[in-house]
Amino acid sequence: MEAIKPIKTERDYKLALQQMESLFHAKPNTKEGDILELLALVIEDYEDKNYKIESLTPLEALKCEMEEQGLSQTSLAQRIGMSKSTISEILQGKKQMSVRFMKYLHNDLGISGNVLLAG
């Protein structure tokens, strides 16, 4: 196995991923486990620089969570005790999310508070 070095190209990145995959089940505190840990660090560094993932807006997060949980506007309205028209206005960006609504999204739907407060 060759020495771990910074990832500078897409080819280096793909090779590092392959190497990581081959060591994926390495036990901690072993030579292989240490190599896996170092690979994870250089891969993360490369991905942070080259594959930046933009944060979702609160509205995008709500729409994604509704889709993942199979919630319609009606079922979300019933679940939270709001009118369907209010949910519709929020989803269309016509109405701001209230603090109560954001608390519900965080506590009951699991949307990160950081995402909800970013908007």
Keywords:
elongated, 119 residues, 66% helix, 2 domains, 434 Repressor (Amino-terminal Domain), mainly alpha
Order of helices and strands: HHHHHHH
Radius of gyration: 21 Å
- Secondary structure: number of strands: 0
- What is the CATH H-level superfamily of the largest domain? lambda repressor-like DNA-binding domains
Largest sheet: none
* Poorly predicted ranges: none
Helix/strand/pairing class, anyone?
A: mainly alpha
Q: How many helices in DSSP terms?
A: 7
Estimate the helix proportion, in percent. 55-70%
The proportion of residues in beta strands is under 5%
Quick summary of this structure?
This protein is mainly alpha-helical. It has helices at 10-22, 31-50, 58-69, 73-80, 84-91, 99-109, 113-118.
Helices and strands in order:
Blueprint: H1 10-22, H2 31-50, H3 58-69, H4 73-80, H5 84-91, H6 99-109, H7 113-118
Walk me through this protein's architecture.
By secondary structure, the protein is an all-alpha fold. It folds into 2 domains: 10-50; 58-118, 434 Repressor (Amino-terminal Domain) (Orthogonal Bundle). The chain is built from 7 helices and no strands. The N and C termini lie far apart (47 Å).
